[in-house]
Amino acid sequence: MFPGAITDIAGLAVGHATESARPTGCTVVLCEAGATCGVDVRGAAPGTRETDLLRPDNLVEQVHAVLLAGGSAFGLDAAAGVMRWLEERGCGYAVGPVAGAGPAVAPVRVPIVPAAVLFDLWLGDARIRPGADSGYAACMAAHTGTPAQGSFGAGAGATVGKLFGIERAMKGGIGTASLRIGAVTVGALVAVNAIGDVVDPVSGRVLAGARTSDGRAPLDSVAAILRGELPERALAGMATTIGVVATDAALTKAQANKLATMAHDGLARCIRPVHTMSDGDTLFALATGGSGRAGEMTVLGVMTAEVTARAVLNAVRAATGLAEPALPATRDLGPA
Question: Is pTM, for the whole model, over 0.85?
Answer without folding.
Answer: yes
